[in-house]
């Protein structure tokens, strides 16, 4: 019996997928890359983006046609709105929330009879028993890179975002479990570990009497790194600017294993638009955090998220975002064209910015990003950087990897034994989004 699993959306769904694979393989199924060979096919959906939901409908339409000539069970889970769950009831054999993953074998045995009332009852208590899900040992997709979930859900309710409605309110995972999983990964030789959550730097705030908060969690990882002594890089995503404290930055600066790369979503450079987005932070708060990062961790790279064409965004407001891009010298920005999502507050508002204008602003901001990222990459030339080798590059004879700051690097080598190792590379040339260098032995 074979299975195939597709994870759409963010890194959280990818991490969830590792635990789904564990449960399925414990049932005796084996993985296949070819979905046509599978007897069980699952998809971890993402209601946050329309194109991800469109892909779900495309996939299930094809799979249901296969049922005319093959024995096939389909399931869907992930980051899904109640309204999408209702529609999926007619299309998939099994629908479940991630907290119910330990019950998947029984669902498959019973062939997954799910009712609308059962789904709604589940959404009324989305994070009940989430600890049972966290206790599932993940089948890590990589031998040297891993995701470690530290919380689930979000309390911010940004007007453009559906996550609070798909994953519920914030619930923090016990820090003892997090540190135990990180320790196990480091002792097994993992080089890159990412703490995951919808808002990682509010970790522990839902359990003020029993749990540490995020700076202390990072400090515990830092002490673990000092204790074990082997080289690894610890990342986290995604933080929220409102909760980004100076203490978090101070702890990162203090410990070698805490990666000097920070992803801090801005979304817009205009304060009025940030209010409309319900971001609960202004440009000045963001500026203060970046100033502290530059002062305490001058070598750190800075990544962000930007939305263009949000409802009501004027030319003046877009230009404010362009100014912010230049001011903060981002190494990378994940730029998204605004798309209303059912369930999010802004879905009720008229989408006043045309698709053509969104595309134009996306292109303009991408060109702005190329200037800031290229400037940093050019400054790398002639210097030596530690690089985690992740695999073969697109060009024959080259390997590719990432610096600690997550800058893409390629170098001439066919030694695949280096994959998963951290090596020294001297940079000799640069482009807007990558650099090339020579391997140093």
Automatic annotation (TrEMBL):
Catalytic class of the enzyme: transferase
Keywords: 4Fe-4S, Cytoplasm, Iron, Iron-sulfur, Metal-binding, S-adenosyl-L-methionine, Transferase
Species, as recorded: Ancylomarina euxinus
Protein name (database record): tRNA-2-methylthio-N(6)-dimethylallyladenosine synthase
Domain Radical SAM core per the UniProt entry, residue ranges: 140-375
SMART domains documented for this protein: Elp3
TRAM domain: residues covered: 378-441
Name of the gene this protein is made from: miaB
An example Gene Ontology CC term for this record: cytosol
Span of domain MTTase N-terminal: 1-113
PANTHER family per record: CDK5 REGULATORY SUBUNIT-ASSOCIATED PROTEIN 1 (PTHR43020), MITOCHONDRIAL TRNA METHYLTHIOTRANSFERASE CDK5RAP1 (PTHR43020:SF2)
Physiological role: Catalyzes the methylthiolation of N6-(dimethylallyl)adenosine (i(6)A), leading to the formation of 2-methylthio-N6-(dimethylallyl)adenosine (ms(2)i(6)A) at position 37 in tRNAs that read codons beginning with uridine.
Name of one Pfam family that matches: UPF0004
Enzyme Commission number(s): 2.8.4.3
Domain of life: Bacteria
Keyword DNA-binding: no
Keyword Transferase among UniProt keywords: yes
Cited InterPro entries: Elp3/MiaA/NifB-like_rSAM, Methylthiotransferase, Methylthiotransferase_CS, Methylthiotransferase_N, Methylthiotransferase_N_sf, rSAM, rSAM_horseshoe, rSAM_sf
Cofactor entry: [4Fe-4S] cluster
GO MF term list: 4 iron, 4 sulfur cluster binding; metal ion binding; tRNA-2-methylthio-N(6)-dimethylallyladenosine(37) synthase activity
């Amino acid at each position: 019996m074979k299975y195939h699993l597709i994870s759409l959306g963010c890194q959280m769904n990818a991490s969830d997928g590792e635990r789904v694979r564990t449960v399925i393989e414990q049932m005796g199924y084996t993985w296949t890359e070819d979905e046509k060979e599978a007897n069980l096919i699952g998809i971890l959906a993402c209601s946050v983006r329309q194109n991800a939901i469109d892909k779900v409908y495309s996939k299930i339409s094809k799979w249901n046609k296969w049922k005319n000539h093959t024995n096939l069970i389909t399931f869907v889970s992930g980051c899904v709105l109640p309204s999408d769950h209702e529609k999926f009831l007619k299309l998939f054999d099994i629908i479940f929330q991630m907290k119910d993953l330990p019950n998947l074998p029984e669902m498959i045995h019973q062939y997954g009879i799910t009712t609308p009332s059962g789904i709604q009852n589940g959404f009324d208590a989305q994070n009940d028993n989430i600890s049972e899900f966290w206790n599932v040992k993940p089948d890590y997709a990589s031998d040297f890179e891993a995701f470690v979930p530290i919380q689930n859900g979000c309390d911010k309710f940004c007007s453009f975002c559906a996550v609070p409605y798909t994953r519920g309110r914030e619930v923090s995972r016990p820090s003892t479990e997090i540190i135990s999983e990180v320790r196990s990964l480091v002792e097994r030789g993992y080089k890159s570990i990412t703490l995951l959550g919808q808002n990682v730097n509010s970790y522990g705030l839902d359990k003020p009497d029993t749990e540490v908060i995020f700076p202390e969690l990072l400090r515990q990882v830092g002490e673990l790194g000092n204790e074990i002594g082997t080289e690894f890089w610890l990342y986290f995503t995604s933080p929220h600017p409102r909760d980004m404290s100076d203490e978090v930055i101070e702890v990162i600066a203090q410990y070698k294993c805490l990666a000097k790369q920070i992803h801090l979503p801005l979304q817009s450079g205009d304060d009025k638009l940030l209010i409309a987005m319900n971001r609960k932070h202004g440009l000045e708060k963001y500026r203060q955090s970046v100033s502290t990062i530059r002062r305490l961790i001058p070598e750190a790279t800075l990544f962000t998220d930007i939305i263009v064409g949000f409802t009501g965004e004027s030319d003046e407001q877009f230009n404010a975002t362009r100014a912010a891009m230049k001011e903060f010298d981002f190494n990378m920005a994940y730029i998204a064209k605004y798309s209303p999502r059912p369930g999010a507050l802004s879905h009720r508002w008229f989408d006043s910015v045309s698709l053509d204008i969104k595309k134009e602003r996306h292109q303009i901001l991408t060109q702005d990003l190329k200037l800031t990222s290229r400037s940093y990459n050019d400054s790398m030339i002639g210097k030596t950087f530690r690089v985690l080798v992740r695999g073969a590059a697109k060009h024959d004879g080259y390997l590719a990897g990432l610096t600690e700051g997550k800058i893409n690097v390629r170098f001439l080598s066919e030694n695949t034994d280096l994959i998963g190792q951290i090596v020294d590379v001297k940079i000799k040339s640069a482009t807007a989004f990558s650099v090339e260098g020579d391997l140093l032995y």
